[in-house]
Amino acid sequence: MDTDLGPRGARTVCQTCEVELDRIAEAAMLTEQDLELLRQPRRRINANLPVRMDDGSVEVFPSFRVQYNDARGPMKGGIRFHPGVDETEVDELAFLMTLKCAVVDIPFGGAKGGVEVDPNDLSTGELERLSRTYISEFHDAVGPQTDIPAPDVNTDSQVMAWMRDEYEQIAGEQTPGVITGKPPGLGGSEGRATATSLGGAEVLDAFLETADVGGRGLEVAIQGFGNVGSHLARFLDERGYDVVAVSTVDGGVYDASGLVVPELFDAYAETGDLFATGGSEISNEELLTLDVDVLVPAAIEDQITEENVAEIRADAVLEMANGPTTPTADECLSKRGVPVIPDILANAGGVTVSYFEWVQNTTNQYWTADRVREQLRAQMQTAFEAVAQVKADGDATRTWREAAYTRAVEAVLRAETYRSNVPAR
Ligand code: NAD
Fold first, then answer.
1. Nearest ligand 1 atom, CA 300
2. Is residue 197 within 6 Å of ligand 1 at its C-beta?
3. Measured from the CB, is residue 221 less than 6 Å from ligand 1?
């Protein structure tokens, strides 16, 4: 295991973190010392995981855990299995997790993990052995009071169950709070599967009230009809929005008068057919440029870019995916007065219910689905109001992203100050 101890080790600054921090540095009055502390993770751990394959051979998978910041509490962040994962990506995601936990005020820091692998190439047995090896390798670094992993791209509740079991076999005791996103019945929380989408719906409702455009009957286009996009479509439809388009990686479906979302949701879950309930074909590029009230990128990163930003016609953007808008595109939208509700706020419902799961695990008391929903709503509304206040306190050009980052960074630095890691402000 190769451990890089941040400031005393190699000084590799996270580039995206630096760009985003520089954007708010002046308005948030960040000092050089603040930036020095925030620009780089506390600890990066890399390991090469040997896994026995079904044919008897051994393959070695590069893997990462980045522990970005733990000033506000144990670090929290998913583990991604993807062939394109690298240290830079994991750095950026760990940075975002730090800010996401701070913006919704849950007492966690930020981390992220990854394994460079295409899980589609693995049998179930190979996937289980890889998941267990990740935990046996990183066992000393994770724990319910230090660093709590969770699912991310291509890792699900079954993977979390194997990982919990592996951790407990080594620890020799039940430790359900070591990981979240577990299946209900093995310490998982009610409501985790739909939490990100419900949180996004709450934030959108709250934003539209602030924007004074009313929250009902508005046209919404959603890129991505996976876990986040499909449940968000359902929640928004239930709240009276007109979801006019949704898409997958293969393209989308469009109906100007509004899709029949509940039927579409069921049909797609059963058959994978986006057109079972009507509508016409639309490409992902066309969906992004629809003239709608709210555009929701809920698929992958870097979808609104300098190439297509001039064609974006939505009145507002709700970032449900992580990092769907590039910094240059973000600046263009800001200049045009198009509000972008940033990922660290819009999609924080998932990590919020992960926190609820950890609370349930550590108290050994389990909540009803209604209680989870109510607490999630309250947490997201409070976070939104706090960000709105920071936005209102700034000058007229302060964006929602800058307001959310400012709130989050101030919260992290407050904790760092109490710990005497930065001088009092
Ligand atoms: P998912 O894999 O369930 O769904 C992704 C969807 O995007 C699928 O419909 C897929 O077909 C589509 N897609 C993939 N590549 C695409 C492309 N190139 N163009 C257009 N569509 C494409 O993933 P998810 O869990 O719904 O997550 C979606 C996004 O939300 C990701 O950015 C993820 O990091 C972020 N997010 C998810 C959660 C969560 O709780 N699941 C929490 C926070 C953030």
1. 32
2. no
3. no
Establish whether residue 372 lines the binding site of ligand 1, counting it when its CB lies within 6 angstroms of any ligand atom: no
- DSSP codes, 32-89: HHHHHHHSS-SEEEEEEEEEE-TTS-EEEEEEEEEEEE-SSSSEEEEEEEETT--HHH
Which tokens is 414 given?
A: 């407050």
Nearest to 274 by CA among 287, 285, 284, 263: 263
Measured distance CA(260)–CA(82) in Å, rounded: 33
Q: Which residue has the tokens 């930065």?
A: 422
pLDDT greater than 50 at residue 341: yes
Query: What's the rounded Cα separation, in Å, for the pair 346 and 360?
Result: 24
Give per-residue pLDDT as tens, 8-44: 334 456 677 788 888 889 888 899 999 989 999 999 9
> Sign (positive/negative) of CA torsion 313, 316, 321, 327?
positive
Tell me how crowded residue 240 is: count the other CB atoms within 10 A of its CB. Answer: 11
Nearest to 297 by CA among 311, 285, 306, 307: 285
